Amino acid sequence: MCLALPCRIVELRPDERALIDVAGVGKEVSLALVEDVAVGDYVIVHVGYALTRLDPEEAEKTLALFAELGEAVLREAGVAGGAIQ
């Protein structure tokens, strides 16, 4: 199964690279497959490559769904507030 995440570009770097924000964690990715991106843009990232730009509203909706899914998984596992019940 493959998973591509919407991530916000926080810094453009040399050699078609960028620093992105992944849930508060910075990660460097390649921009070789996308054109005309700027700081603040959202991109879909898979295995270290930005694949395409994404509308900010769609990115926020998708990120909210991922957060909901994560909370549901933790509830199902009996984890609340970071502790197993």
Automatic annotation (TrEMBL):
Descriptive protein name: Hydrogenase isoenzymes formation protein HypC
Lineage: Bacteria, Pseudomonadati, Pseudomonadota, Betaproteobacteria, Candidatus Accumulibacter
GO molecular function terms noted in the UniProt entry: carbon dioxide binding; iron ion binding
GO biological process per UniProt: protein maturation
Gene3D superfamilies: 2.30.30.140
One Pfam family this sequence matches: HupF_HypC
Family: Belongs to the HupF/HypC family.
Family matches, as InterPro entries: Hydgase_assmbl_chp_CS, Hydrogenase_HupF/HypC
Source organism: Candidatus Accumulibacter vicinus
